[in-house]
């Protein structure tokens, strides 16, 4: 097409840094990485995004960065890029100047992608040939952004790890049905920071909200065709853009910052789930939106000998190549942006081994981890790994660098098996309860780096874990084939809802016991939103595409007594810190007091044959040096279906928790003749020594 350069001034050389579009008061500097391109055009659009007003070749190149400065340009300008270069899919190159490309460093994305449009760089019927149809009119565009925000002295809570309790939630799902939230704010950033939402967080006693992805995403075409959406959000399109679908206003960045500021003022940290392992461009049959058209061979991991395809360690069609310095730069720039400009307090990294993958495999001292370690800004925030991906050697629990937290699925599976009738020994359960030393201690890691959970967004809710043996995912449109098949769940005698009082009592006891296991264990606990009030997803254990009442927290049906019980557990954790944030030795001090001793129901120490017993489900932990100081604690568990007696060690014992009680309290204290404590079926009990044993 004819390049419409008027009334635009000629592009100046500008600077190769910072990446993206940056305003300097008299114009805008554009810088984009496209190492194999032979020319990159800056395309300017009118406010509607439908009319291309100018196509200006970027005049300067510094190494692999193309750049130019446009005098007189201002915030609000819509733009995109077109990259010229080789079209050689067999060699990994997919430049197609007929496709408009987003800015990888762009701060705002406008438009709506019509999947029926000509957005595919390759011909759909002849995938090795270029599609020469122009998509500029329909393509997504980037917008120049330059804004300020009055943080009003905002300071991060900087909650110590020993006091941290993570609450995983979804911005929309948490408040969509929440009473007390203004109607127009429900399901939005503003709603998450509403008085009603904050009151619930404070009532519980959690310290950090971990948000499922809020960086702007793109719904997959398969879901769009079925009338569904990517509700979870693990398909990031804009790594610097708060997703506008969660904004009650027309200013998502401002609303997101207001949310963070209000949560900080309430003492709550904000953690973001981030997806730096793949992009929405999918495999070689996917669209050309940004990275593929700029420099496919650099942005993505391509297999040797079959370079028209992609290494797919994400399961989503492609894998970003963190080995390339510019890809690493984009990830680091994005992380710093969310900390510095948006004031977030940490990140949970989806499929985190991808970030450590060098050429031979996972490298715990790889470039990404070294870059994070030396960055003074990122060293101030919490970094949490989902420690597995789909590539070879992708299971890396316990293998991340010191200082990183990791989701501990070994804790999850052991706790489920122990309480719900799976294959488990007392030794395995005790190992998980006391920080998973087999995974972390030998590598000089802290027990607090184990993120302990029984339920996350991915799988059954806690209520469903004890209500369903099988997944019920037909609403997802995959003929019930998606989601985990091995859930270690138990329906307690009836699949799904029931009015049977015996089944309901069994389920309620198990829910309380599982909550106690997570919240009293050594490590950093994580709750999934809604588990504290009995939320059910109807047995759907993979509701990633269900933006409806399936996933929205069912506040009208909330179990208030379970909320109170969970709050009581968290208050106990804060006050007593049953298991400290250091490793226990099991040894006695000069007074003959053990820091931690494991007991059988007879009150005698555990021996190897008792540890390996797969039948017994009764265990006691005598904690001589709890993290909160004060007297010794006795933590007892009984996962059997009948009551059992437990012989008490010397001490003036008071009951702080009895999970058989709806509120967790039974008022028991040791009398002169009380040598035995009756552990209810499927229960967790915590006793505190309040002084010398009674005479």
In CATH, the homologous superfamily of the domain at 164-285 and 315-488 and 514-576 goes by the name Glycosidases
Q: Label the overall shape.
A: elongated
Overall helicity:
10-25%
Strand ordering within the main sheet = 12-13-16-17-18-19-20-21
Largest pleated sheet: 8 strands, parallel, barrel
- The CATH topology label of the domain at 164-285 and 315-488 and 514-576 is TIM Barrel
Give the count of helical stretches. Answer: 15
| Nearest-integer average pLDDT | 96
Low-pLDDT sequence parts: 1-6
Content of β-strand: 15-25%
- Termini gap: 97 Å
- Do you know the CATH architecture of the domain at 164-285 and 315-488 and 514-576? Alpha-Beta Barrel
- Give the class-level CATH name of the domain at 164-285 and 315-488 and 514-576: Alpha Beta
Helix-strand makeup class:
alpha/beta
Main features:
695 residues; alpha/beta; TIM Barrel; Immunoglobulin-like; 8-stranded parallel beta barrel; disordered N terminus
